[in-house]
Write the structure tokens for this entry.
Amino acid sequence: MFETIADGIHVLVSNSFDSNITHLDCGERQVLIDTGTGMYSQQLEMQLSKIGASISKITDVVLTHSHIDHIGGLAVIQKEADPKIYLHECEASRINSGDMRLTLASTFGASLPPIRIEGILHEGDVIDLGEMKLRVFSTPGHSCGSVCLEVLDRNVIITGDTLFAGGSFGRVDFPTGDPTELVNSLKRLAEMDFAIAVPGHMGLIRGGTRQAAVASYEMAKIMFRV
């Protein structure tokens, strides 16, 4: 079920291959950060209804990157709503040209309909969603277009598959993955401090987010010998 972690911010932690999904209640704007695979859309709809939301009311979808476990739910959402979709330029440009290889859909035997990314993200952008704003941090390594998203004035950061709890981090063996870039991205996160970090998978990081990022950074340096 969705857990409220701050005013207007609800997180659905996945217990499957799906990514975690964050819902932002921005009044007239209803926002999802990542969408899961889409395989569990009925469960997503049921959980959204419990917080007074629904798939049909989604106005914006912000993606931390374009892998199928984060982007696949768009296929269902676009049937019921017409959201503006946001993604970093490195991956958005390929998808907009019709190149879906970075989604890894074919790797996992899935297919995706054509997707048009209107919100092209860059380092330092601030996404104005009305009652909330997101600051974009470019954090490549897991993929070239991976981003972390700070919810301004909420002391919350969504880290996608860059940073996980327990000294862990995203894999780098998919296309455009890069261990050196991941280490650099983790170093950047290790210099920040937030009350709550929301990873792309597994549990939330509450308190000590900076220490958690330092642990992941140090582990990645050792693993990749960077």
About this structure: The chain has six helices and 13 strands.
